[in-house]
Amino acid sequence: MQETATRNRVAPGGWWLDGLLLAAFAALTAMLTAGWLLDLDTAVSDWVADQKGGALWWLCRVLNFLGNGGPLTLICLVIAVWLAVRRRSVWPVAPVVAAFLVTGFAIMPLKLWTDRAAPASTLADKVELFNTLPPGEYSLSYPSGHMVNTVVWYGVLVLLLCPWLGRAAQRWLRIAPPAIVFCTTVFLNYHWVTDSVAGLMLGVVLDRLLHRVAWPKLPRE
Q1: Which of these, 22, 85, 205, 218, is most buried using a 10 Å CB contact count?
Q2: Is the peptide bond before 163 cis (omega within 30 degrees of 0)?
Q3: Which residues constitute the domain of residue 199?
């Protein structure tokens, strides 16, 4: 158990990276509110809209399911219950519950607060944060929940499967799925590119928070 706890400590240590990411998230939000980077979001969205329907587009649709929060939650829960029964300890279930709570409490309030429509929306000011029109079918775009879920839930998978994963496999699970989901989410026009950047930063902060807890040291019952 001690090996598991040690191998899942955050790197780099300390809180400076967390503070830097939160400051960057706040700065990005402020810039978007002031109207900066909106032209970049619009230009990227217009370009990827012209790519719809090709082979690459369909491949991205398939790969984007790597960031689907529902299946990821279920997979992690099944693994956690199996480990809990095997080890007669509640600790494997605890990080899954914690991840579900922190993602929910972090993502939805921010989406409701910033009230940004997605690229697929027909709203005239869809690229803007805090738009003046009522929320529609394609609202609640900022930050990208796909990105937050991908970073957090693959981090939980690494935490649960750490004893059976080498360092290379851990790095692959921590880096490859978020990178794929970032590219596919933008390419499919599901989110503005800055939505995904914001989701990536927030996801890393939440992931580091979860990995600071010594889960194997929780009470066995």
Answers
A1: 205
A2: no
A3: 13-217
